[in-house]
């Protein structure tokens, strides 16, 4: 039974390594954005987009960055692309500490989640405006 388990484990490891080695990625960031417009890499659209006139790389925008170890508000300073990896440099606006995050463009479920800070602010302001319209205020009963 141990021999069968070792054989299966080795087979799965080889298959995993072959999948990793055979995964393709765009040659340039322009190719990446073109493929995004065709429907691939949609998980990266928070950072990359294209207008008629230029590439939108989100520089200067703030993001709530969440990972299994914690979260923080960071400003995106630069984006580079090399061999299937987005290399992003962020700065914490309060401490001016920098953080570099590398994302595999083929990983649809990375360890990091990025939420545009403007979107969070808009949701909060919309909720405040809708909640405080007078008729929606709830009265608490004395219990």
Notes on the structure:
The protein is of the alpha+beta class. The chain is built from three helices and seven strands, in the order ααβββββββα. The strands form two sheets. A five-stranded antiparallel sheet has the order 6-5-4-3-7. The chain has a two-stranded antiparallel ribbon with strand order 1-2. β5 (85-91) and β6 (98-104) form a beta hairpin.
How far apart lie the N and C ends? 65 Å
| Topology as a string of helices (H) and strands (E) | HHEEEEEEEH
- The residue ranges in which pLDDT falls below 50 over 5 or more consecutive positions are 1-22, 49-55
Number of helices: 3
Structural class: alpha+beta
Name the overall outline. globular
Strand content: 25-35%
**What share of residues is helical?**
25-40%
CATH names the topology as SH3 type barrels
Largest sheet: 5 strands, antiparallel
**CATH first level:** Mainly Beta
Q: What gyration radius follows from the Cα positions, in whole Å? A: 22 Å
Q: What number of structural domains do the residues give?
A: 1
Mean pLDDT: 75
Number of strands: 7
The main sheet orders its strands as 6-5-4-3-7
CATH architecture: Roll
